[in-house]
Amino acid sequence: MLSYIKEYYLLGLYTESNLDVFVNARWITEEQKQEIIASKATQ
């Protein structure tokens, strides 16, 4: 699940708000969310 969320976020299909929803749904952790956000910043 994490790989799909990360890929969609990097493509711009998901926003930070979507990531918050995924954290609340326990699909990803807060740490994973921060890693996803950081990976976009390094592109």
> Mean pLDDT, rounded to whole units?
97
- Work out the strand percent: under 5%
Number of strands: 0
Structural class: mainly alpha
**Radius of gyration from CA coordinates:** 9 Å
Query: How many alpha or pi helices?
Result: 3
Give the terminus-to-terminus CA distance: 21 Å
Largest sheet: none
From the spread of the alpha carbons, the general shape counts as globular
Count of individual domains: 1
Order of helices and strands: HHH
Stretches where pLDDT falls below 50 for ≥5 residues? none
Percent in helix? 55-70%
Protein name: Phage protein
Pfam family, one: Phage_XkdX
How do the helices and strands line up, and which of them pair or pack?
Elements: H1 2-10, H2 16-24, H3 30-41
Notable features of this structure?
70% helix; mainly alpha; 43 residues
Can you describe this structure?
The chain has 43 residues and is mainly alpha-helical. It has one domain (1-42). The chain has three helices and no strands. It has helices spanning 2-10, 16-24, 30-41. It is globular, with a radius of gyration of 9 Å. The protein starts with a helix and ends with a helix. The model has no long low-confidence stretch (mean pLDDT 97).
Task: Please outline what is shown here.
InterPro entries: XkdX. By secondary structure, the chain is mainly alpha-helical. Helices cover 70% and strands 0% of the residues.
